[in-house]
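Please check this record.
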Amino acid sequence: MGASRGKRCAYRSGTPPAEVAERLGLDPEKDLTVVRERIRIVDQDPYALADSYFPEELVRGTPLMLPEDVSAPGGVLASVGLVQARYRDEITVCMPTRAEAERLSLPAATPVAVHLCTGYDENGRPLRVMITILPGDRHVIRYDVSAE
């Protein structure tokens, strides 16, 4: 991985995919989400896709509704009082969709890891779902877990 890092970001509003709606406790046919779509870049090359979905009703009127890329110390959600207290990670490995392969400029037959992370507040309310597509030729997934 090189020293030059960056991201391209776009926002849109719409109905969420079924798997996202389920994790956010939304009706996929009538509830809306705000989606922050990012292509993470390393050394001018696409490195990963990271799409974050937020319930529209939670982020209405916040910086997440702005058309430009926004950030805040501790995260944009926390800056508006929506603090994530816990996360659930799900990782699967599969072949990419055609669109994912094109966006990431993947060589043929390159699998991807799909990291689906759902963030919850202290009361267990889901705040966001982030889906990160990690090409198998560019990533190592490593966890350190402490027994307490």
